[in-house]
Amino acid sequence: MRWAVMGGALLATAGFGWVWAQESEVPLKDAPKLETVNQKASYIIGHNIGSQLKREAIEPDVDALLIGIKEAIAGKKMGIPTKDAQAVMQEFSRLAQAAQEEKKKGVGAKNLDEAKKFLAGNTKKDGVITTKSGLQYEVIKEGAGAIPKASDKVRTHYKGTLLDGTVFDSSYDRGEPAEFPVGGVIKGWVEALQLMKVGSKWKLYIPPDLGYGERGAGEDIGPNAMLTFEIELLDIVE
Fold first, then answer.
1. Of 189, 193, 154, whose CA–CA distance to 169 is shortest?
2. Cys-Cys link to 183, which of 67, 142, 150, 172 (CB 3.0-4.6 A)?
3. Could you tell me the pLDDT band of residue 14, with boundaries at 50, 70 and 90?
4. Is residue 154 within 8 Å of residue 148, measured between CB atoms?
5. Alpha-carbon distance 62 to 51, whole Å?
6. Strand, helix or coil at 44?
7. Could you confirm whether 209 is annotated as catalytic?
């Protein structure tokens, strides 16, 4: 975590580089009335700052945060000397990063346990095939074309979901197939694509170690997340 980067993100927010959070279905009881443009804009700026802090897994003292904002807007000098402030922020960054890593480990352990339980039960489902690596798949439609090699480039349509059904990626939603080298994707896909014939449509159940593993990917795919894909192998690209 680098505060220079984070500071830049907050400045970008204040410069109208908005990042919209999902609307809450339950409004706060003490939410202020937002009537003027200034009130609404001020609220939006504050909400974006809070959203940024949440994404960075930072839990500030909100009262102290508001005091700092008010004093800065009033043009007051910061009450902590710059030299001391730098030391404080370094220590705060260290503590925040340690807390984030600990939280990530907990999420990873939970995801791994859920993945193992699901995959163990899924082996009993009719039509599910399990390979030596642990990859599971169902053949929805069997094609009659060629089988790609690791060195080939393929064109596919696909939809990726998490264990809870959340869609994290879909070429169908984008309205166009995706092209990529067989050897350039996650292990579960590399293995499956070299078993599929062109024209096939399969459903893949990808264990964490054949997906993004402990590191996860972006905000949607957590550590040790099990992934499910519906994939159509449309063509081998010459």
1. 189
2. 150
3. very low
4. yes
5. 13
6. helix
7. no
Q: Where in the chain is the domain with CATH 3.10.50.40?
A: 114-237
Whole-angstrom distance, CA of residue 6 vs CA of residue 93? 11
Mark whether 92 is an active-site residue.
Answer: no
Catalytic-role residue among 137, 206, 212, 221: 212
The C-alpha atoms of residue 108 and residue 208 are separated, in whole angstroms, by 10
Question: What is the spatial distance between Cα 125 and Cα 138, in angstroms, rounded to a whole number?
Answer: 10
What is the token pair recorded at 225? 């997340």
Q: What is the pTM of this model?
A: 0.66
| pLDDT, tens digit (0-9, with 9 covering 90-100), for 96-130 | 888 878 888 888 899 999 999 999 999 999 999 99
Distance of CA 19 to the CA centre of its chain: 15
Q: What is the CATH number of domain 114-237?
A: 3.10.50.40
Catalytic residue among 44, 45, 152, 168: 168
